[in-house]
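Structure tokens please, single chain.
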Amino acid sequence: MKWLRSALCCVWMPCVAAGCALIHHDSAPYAAIAPEQIALADDIHLARQGWPAARWWTRFNDPQLDALIDQALAGSPTMLIARTRVAQAKSDVELVSTGSSLQVTALALLNREHVSAHGFLGPFAMNEPALGLTGPWYTEGIVGLGASLNVDIWGKQRAQIAASLGVSNARLAETSAVELELSADVAQLYYGIQTTYRLIDLLNESRDVAAFAVQAHEGRAARGLEARTFTEEARAQELAIRRQIVAAQAQIMQFRESMRALVGAGPDGLRVIEPVALPAVDAALPATLSYELLARRPDLQAMRWYVQSSFDRIDAARAAFYPSFDIKAFFGFNALHLGDLFTHASQQINLIPGLYLPIFDGGRLNANLSGAREASNLLIEQYNQAVLNAVRDVALTGTRLQSLDAEAGLQKRRIESVAFARDSAEAHYRRGLASRLTALEARQPVIAERVALLTLDGQMISQEIALTKALGGGYRADPPVEPRPR
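Here you go.
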């Protein structure tokens, strides 16, 4: 190969001097993001450190959630689309790879031809058997094998194959990103349902208290001990609680239908979701992000592979300026009379080496190179922005978890304070110093504060799932290689 390349260079240099297609302009590639920009502020930290594990959702120890996520990863249309895109990319790699392989074709041709007396083969139009001319009709037969081989001297074909491989690897990473997206969305919906179940329980407690208050006020109003206004106020409060219960039940139905669409289940394909206790939040942040985040995020890995593929496309566009070389060959039989086709004299052998040099192309090659370079620069900027967005996602969710943890601690102390008044009212009722209505109504503020704590707990679970997603959900590319511009 070296001698061939040297020989072609000897042909190529005079061509350059004579005006062959030249690279007029090729701008420098954009720079990838700096490592110091892949970091969190010093004041963002959680109690635990570390990265999510594979199948991170199993940490919640909930068989229902495990089964729902497995169902989504197996049968969701979104997953099927992602896997189909991977298969399509692999087919593209195989298709591009065939361009550098030896191509062999079997050929069989039958041609019934009337020869023109005024054409190039005019003498063959005569019918003079003594001279071997039996025109003007002939039945030509050709049988044999044809072969062609493109010699990839400048690496154009190799660059195209590498570009296709880059797209294939990007599609694989995108599949992992879809898996992460699906698992996180299923977990968010699942704990949305579980939080709403718990909310309905608390609202039922509050409704029972409100219903007793209505009965108590109706009895006192019937005996003339108080105005009916108190009864209607109590009833209005009860109706407001019932409305909240109806809204919460509708929310569960909406969550279920969203879950059904997410996992790709039919009308009866989604199992009944039973209420379970909410898990304790145990989120963790790594001590440092740096380039480790790039290897942990499948979407960033996909972008990196697309950038790498764009560099290979630039190499292919550059190689298009250089001469190409191929070899074509044919071996078989060719005769104007079928009776002579398979005789030794009818053997035909062709060996055709070909050299192709671009000279004047109207700027097509330069436009192709410029387009490849600009497309690569665009991908680099999109990659840089995706990295910054990933760092932002981690920072925002980590900060929000810090804040929610502090709020939850304060809310628990608030419940303790409000519960003291409830316990005091119940103690007075047991000693006959207060009515049962007073003791029950003292529970309402506690229930309201428990609802507030439940809201915080639900938000913390949601943010923990969001943080897991922002950190890549257990995905890891090995090794974490960064794109190198060309």
